[in-house]
């Protein structure tokens, strides 16, 4: 009888060993576990979704940017590298759908636009090849529909439009768009275009004063008509009136260590979510009420692992899910609002 129990105990241990071995040798599980432990913050408003994506082996390059089309439930990832697909498409629940290569050189920023008439994907390209220095519009399956700028040639022109390392853009549902040009290069400017690509206003040149920029890296628009620009090299966010381009103010106090590299609002408008690249940190800053800019106040942070390097991020307008393109970790991770988000008065 004693012998029987010894055997049963052995069998149980052996099975447990097998299961553990299988779990830990799955690199996705290991990697997610490592980043989750390192990335934990006290009272974090967001928590890592370890199930996204289902299979991370699709990240074969350096993942620079991410855009969520929350109406279709799709996530678009721009990656760079030799012999890798430049755009990867996943579902919001983590399944890989498709990829495309053609007409993309070096993606920098990406935006999922939803206007009354259509869904589209816009990519800013900072490559020096035949598709570089342009901003391109694709339909959701990757057909090229529109090219702004002079392909393969950097410049400062406005008619025709030219860019030098265009960093990112934001497209409103009216089709009006805001472009930050760029990620270094000749131009340090914010341009508003109408839906038929006429220049409505333009702010900026290289410099440190009001409405001047040093690497304007990311741009977003809030619900009350203000444009927020991550002026990375000047370690500040500058805010403009979206109709007139008038300078409304700036935030500096949160960025003494490093400038912001990405800006997006949560769909309830409560927080501005900001990436700091080299600090591998994501800040949740209280969004100011209409009519006042006030100063920057950090409510919560996600400290990612050393060298994860969050470059650009996007937030689902439906669920509030946050996707972060990490150029150091070479992956995109998804975070979802946690219980403390809702107890902190989010909705
Ligand atoms: C992109 O290019 C790589 C390398 O040439 C190739 O393996 C891959 O199948 C291509 N992907 C697409 C979507 O065309
Ligand atoms: C822009 O100005 C900054 C200092 O304000 C300087 O470091 C940088 O080299 C300038 N860039 C260009 C393109 O002139
Ligand atoms: C991050 O560090 C790299 C390497 O030191 C540097 O080239 C880059 O300018 C830094 N970026 C920011 C946003 O500080």
TrEMBL record:
Keyword Lipid biosynthesis applies: no
InterPro entries named in the record: 6-blade_b-propeller_TolB-like, NHL_repeat
Keyword tags: Glycoprotein, Repeat, Signal
Any Pfam family the entry gives: NHL
Start-end of each NHL repeat: 209-243
PROSITE patterns linked: NHL (PS51125)
PANTHER family in alphabetical order: PEPTIDYL-GLYCINE ALPHA-AMIDATING MONOOXYGENASE
Protein name (Swiss-Prot/TrEMBL): NHL repeat-containing protein 3
Organism encoding this protein: Erinaceus europaeus
Annotated gene: NHLRC3
């Amino acid at each position: 009888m004693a012998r029987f129990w010894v055997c049963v105990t052995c069998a149980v241990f052996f099975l447990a060993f097998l299961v553990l071995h299988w779990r830990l040798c799955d690199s996705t599980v290991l990697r997610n576990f490592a980043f989750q432990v390192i990335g934990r913050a006290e009272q974090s408003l967001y928590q890592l979704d370890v199930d996204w994506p289902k299979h991370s082996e699709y990240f074969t390059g350096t993942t620079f940017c991410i855009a969520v089309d929350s109406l279709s439930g799709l996530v678009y990832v721009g990656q760079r590298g030799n012999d890798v697909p430049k755009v990867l498409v996943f579902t919001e629940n983590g399944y890989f759908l498709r990829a495309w290569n053609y007409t993309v050189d070096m993606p920098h920023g990406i935006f999922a636009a939803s206007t009354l008439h259509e869904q589209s994907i816009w990519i800013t390209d900072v490559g020096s090849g035949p598709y570089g220095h342009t901003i391109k519009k694709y339909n959701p399956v990757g057909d090229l529909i529109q090219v702004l700028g002079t392909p393969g040639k950097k410049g400062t022109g406005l008619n025709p439009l030219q860019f030098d390392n265009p960093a990112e853009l934001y497209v409103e549902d009216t089709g009006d768009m805001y472009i930050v040009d760029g990620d270094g290069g000749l131009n340090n400017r914010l341009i508003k275009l109408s839906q038929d690509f006429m220049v409505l206003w333009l702010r900026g040149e290289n410099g440190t004063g009001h409405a001047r920029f040093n690497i304007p890296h990311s741009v977003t628009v809030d619900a009350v008509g203000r444009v927020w620009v991550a002026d990375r090299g000047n370690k500040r966010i500058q805010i403009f009136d979206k109709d007139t381009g008038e300078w409304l103010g700036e935030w500096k106090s949160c960025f003494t260590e490093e400038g912001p590299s990405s800006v997006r609002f949560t769909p309830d408008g409560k927080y501005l979510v900001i990436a700091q690249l080299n600090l591998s940190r994501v800040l949740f800053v209280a969004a100011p009420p209409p009519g006042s800019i006030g100063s920057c106040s950090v409510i919560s942070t996600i400290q990612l692992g050393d060298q994860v390097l969050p470059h650009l991020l996007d937030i689902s307008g439906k669920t509030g899910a946050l996707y972060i393109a990490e150029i150091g970790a070479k992956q995109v991770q998804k975070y979802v609002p946690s219980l403390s988000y809702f107890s902190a008065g989010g909705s």
